[in-house]
Design goal:
By secondary structure, this protein is α/β, with parallel strands linked by helices. Among the domains are: 282 residues, Rossmann fold; 55 residues. The chain contains 20 helices and 16 strands. Strands 6-5-4-7-8-10-14 form a seven-stranded parallel sheet, sandwiched between helices. Strands 1-2-3 form a three-stranded antiparallel sheet. Helix 3 crosses helix 12 and helix 7 runs parallel beside helix 10.
């Protein structure tokens, strides 16, 4: 393993990173947290919306899941914000203006379009590409950003767990480096918020709000992808990422160190969310626009396509609603600019520390809700089993996933239709492989800096920018989550629920009948193999028959 970029020394209640001026608060120490973030006198308190008044913001990743929620929240809750510049990549022959129009006409912005449509004119597209030199931004647009922007949110990243190392490094590391170079030219930058992941340090089980030693020098990894052929890189990837499960967590860890190297005296904070899922409250409960993570698997369960997974049911499922992450990001920028902490502040944005839910409880809630609010066109009654026996899980998966898929595909071919079910099961299996590591391991993400930030807000700002995990009612949240992906991903209206519930009742009876048939056929098979079992079964039936004959005499 290469020599670490920074030597970490513990000194009292702080962790000092040699090679740079940054001092990070150790989340295990109350006193160090108070040094990093202290209460502002109420007479000098600047409310969060007032802080953003007249300011211009630059956002990378603004067309992604989190970026959309960030744009909407800033426009709605900080109405005096000046402009929001979005880095948008032209694609599929669409100019950035067309992509922006598509973005702002999405359901997410419905209330803004209805109530304050003028706010949408504050969103200005900037043509660029995170994978290109200087982010692919023209010289004139660079000058515009450097002159006007005072807050930057960097959320652009590839979140594909199985992304090839070369592309993952290019986006997650080089993209960060190029953004920082641009930030150094910004004349009035007050805050740069970098979105990382709580799992960038998944090689350890107890994760504090600090930057740990890197597995390699980030510059060495960049050099490696520049001169090694991609096929050789692919072969080296497993040994390079080591204990980490994928290139995503590996490159995000190195990106934090790249930020440490390149930031210098820039006002930087890092937000590390855990597994980001549908919104809790804003702009409306249950909003989601992708199949990533648990959403795809819960959807497959709801459709009756998926019923068994490797998962430790008693482990914490550290999932966090997207609006909680966004509210933390917005207030972290406010705190970075107004309190001017000494060095970089890290925020572990998670729920497991303060308000945990286990995988078992989450799955039970989800199955109950997809039965209560079923999808149209369910193929089977939703059930699910969490187990830690790989042979048993593989055998069960083959029986309930692939055998029905092959049967349905054969029927499809016979009727002249396209067979798709085996392909669907292969995609589900791929998603399961990506999630399995996180469902069979457990971490403790310390969040002292998050709590200190929460305490530094006025009650009005706390209510307006909610990121307190204890406000989540998990059972109610999962119900809104299911209704959300039903509406926003499957495009099914509430009016279809009565007919879907009737179909669910039919599937329930069919499910029970199938279980009875399996028991009967299994028993008959065993009896055919065992004379003693056959004799016992005959004796049992004769006893039941005699008892029924005696009933009229009693």
């Amino acid at each position: 393993m290469a020599q670490s970029l920074v030597e970490v020394e513990e000194s009292g209640d702080q962790i000092l990173l040699n090679g740079g001026p940054n001092i990070f608060s150790s989340s295990s120490s109350t006193s160090s947290t108070s040094k990093l973030d202290h209460f502002i006198d109420e007479s000098n308190y600047i409310p969060v919306p007032q802080f953003y008044s007249g300011r211009s913001v630059f956002i990378t990743g603004g067309t992604g899941f989190m970026g959309k929620v960030l744009v909407e929240k800033l426009l709605r809750s900080c109405p005096d914000i000046k402009n929001i510049y979005l880095l948008i990549r032209p694609k599929r022959g669409q100019e950035v203006s067309a992509r922006l129009h598509e973005l702002l006409n999405a359901p997410l912005f419905e209330s803004l379009r209805r109530d304050t449509p003028k706010e949408l004119s504050k969103v200005i597209p900037v043509s660029g590409d995170i994978t290109s030199e200087k982010l692919g931004i023209s010289e004139s647009d660079q000058n515009l950003l450097c002159k006007n922007v005072s807050v930057v949110f960097h959320s652009a990243a590839t979140v594909k767990f199985d992304e090839k190392l070369k592309l993952s490094v290019t986006i997650n590391m080089l993209g960060t480096k190029r953004l920082v170079e641009l930030c150094h030219r910004m004349k009035s930058l007050d805050a740069l918020i970098h979105v990382s992941t709580a799992y960038c340090n998944c090689d350890r089980t107890d994760v504090s709000e600090i930057i740990y030693d890197p597995p390699y020098n980030p510059d060495d990894i960049i050099s490696l992808i520049n001169w090694l052929p991609e096929d050789m890189l692919d072969k080296l990837t497993p040994s390079l990422i080591g204990k980490r499960p994928n290139t995503y967590t590996f490159t995000k860890a190195l990106a934090e160190h790249m930020l440490l190297q390149e930031a210098g005296n820039l006002p930087v904070a890092i937000v590390r969310p855990s597994i980001v899922i549908a919104s809790l409250n804003e702009p409306f409960a249950g909003w989601v626009d992708n199949w990533n993570g648990p959403t795809g698997l819960v959807s497959a369960v709801a459709k009756g396509l998926f019923r068994t997974i490797m998962c430790e049911k008693d482990f914490v499922a550290d999932m966090v609603p997207v609006d909680i992450v966004i509210n933390l990001m917005i207030t972290a920028a406010w705190r970075t600019a107004t309190a001017k902490p000494n060095g970089m502040t890290i925020y572990n944005c998670c729920t497991g520390q303060r308000h945990p839910i286990t995988w078992g409880k989450f799955v039970n809630h989800a199955i109950a809700q997809v039965r209560k609010h079923p999808l149209e066109g369910c193929l089977w009654y939703p059930t699910g089993v969490l187990r830690m026996s790989r042979p048993l899980n593989t055998m069960h998966g083959f029986l309930v996933h692939y055998i029905p898929a092959y049967v349905l595909d054969i029927l499809a071919r016979l009727t002249g239709k396209k067979p798709v079910m085996v392909s669907v099961q292969n995609k589900i299996a791929k998603a399961v492989d990506c999630l399995e590591y996180f469902a069979t391991n457990q971490w403790r993400f310390r969040d002292d800096n998050v709590q200190t930030l929460l305490q530094s807000l006025s009650q009005k700002d706390r209510d307006n920018f909610i990121f307190d995990a204890t406000t989540i009612n998990w059972e109610n949240y999962v119900e809104r989550y299911v209704l959300g992906f039903r509406e926003f991903l499957f495009k099914q209206r509430p009016e279809s629920l009565p007919s879907s519930r009737k179909n669910m009742l039919r599937l329930y009876y069919l499910h029970q009948l199938s279980k009875m048939l399996v028991i009967i056929f299994t028993w008959r098979f065993l009896m055919a193999r065992s004379k003693k079992l056959n004799e016992l079964w005959t004796a049992f039936l004769q006893t039941i028959l005699r008892m029924t004959r005696l009933l009229p005499l009693l």
